[in-house]
Design goal:
This protein has helices at 14-23, 31-37, 44-53, 66-73, 77-101, 115-118, 134-144, 149-157, 162-168, 179-193, and strands at residues 2-7, 28-30, 107-111, 126-131, 171-174. By secondary structure, the chain is an alpha/beta fold. A five-stranded parallel sheet has the order 2-3-1-4-5, with helices on both faces. α2 crosses α5. The chain is globular, with a radius of gyration of 17 Å.
Length: 196
């Protein structure tokens, strides 16, 4: 089984690549979605987050508000690191289980936005980096996530340097165009790389 990580900065199109690969019937693990599933009340992480960040992160239903949590961690680097230290062990466990469940598949993918920051590249055979021009990333964040330009710039500023990512990756997708162009590129890659 070949294990391929999908990573890149926010707004680059990692999730779009993951969706397109799922449509081509590849198993794809989503680290962010898995992390968010750990925020539920019945998960051990729930109490850890409240203890670390206070009840201010809860909404009216006493669920963890991703928006409230984001406001805290993206305005304080120390708190962002605390969040990652709490969440990442659970996500890694989920990723390793995903590998076990799909051990009979020829190729599997995992979308891991903070791959290099957490040092998980050694868990994979290859790294597929999705990147784009900063201005395009900013436009996408404003259009699809309703960020203000200031919020989008703040999120981009917390990311690992793009050139550093490009140097470390095995394969780089420059996603500055349309979804149709991206899908056509992935079709070619599937054939050339023999992922099927």
């Amino acid at each position: 089984m070949k294990k391929i990580a999908i990573t890149g900065t926010i707004g680059s199109g990692k999730s779009t690549v993951a969706i397109l690969l799922r449509r081509k019937h590849f198993p794809v693990f989503d680290a962010d979605s898995y992390a968010k599933s750990c925020y539920r009340k019945n998960h051990p992480l729930y109490q850890d987050l409240i203890h670390t960040f206070s009840i201010g992160i809860l909404d009216e239903q006493e669920e963890i508000s991703k928006q409230n949590l984001a406001q805290i961690v993206f305005s304080d680097e120390k708190k962002r690191k605390q969040l990652n230290e709490l969440v990442h062990p659970y996500v890694k466990e989920g990723l390793l289980n995903f590998f076990k469940l799909n051990k009979d598949k020829k190729t599997v993918f995992a979308e891991v936005p903070l791959l290099y920051e957490v040092g998980w590249e050694n868990l994979f055979d290859e790294v597929l980096l999705v990147t784009c021009e900063d201005e395009i990333a900013l436009e996408r964040l404003q259009e699809y996530r309703n960020f203000t330009r200031e919020e989008a710039l703040k999120r981009l500023a917390t990311q690992i340097d793009k050139m550093e990512q490009i140097e470390k990756a095995n394969t780089v997708i420059y996603n500055n165009g349309t979804i149709v162009e991206l899908n056509e590129l992935l079709d070619k890659m599937v054939k050339v790389e023999k992922w099927n």
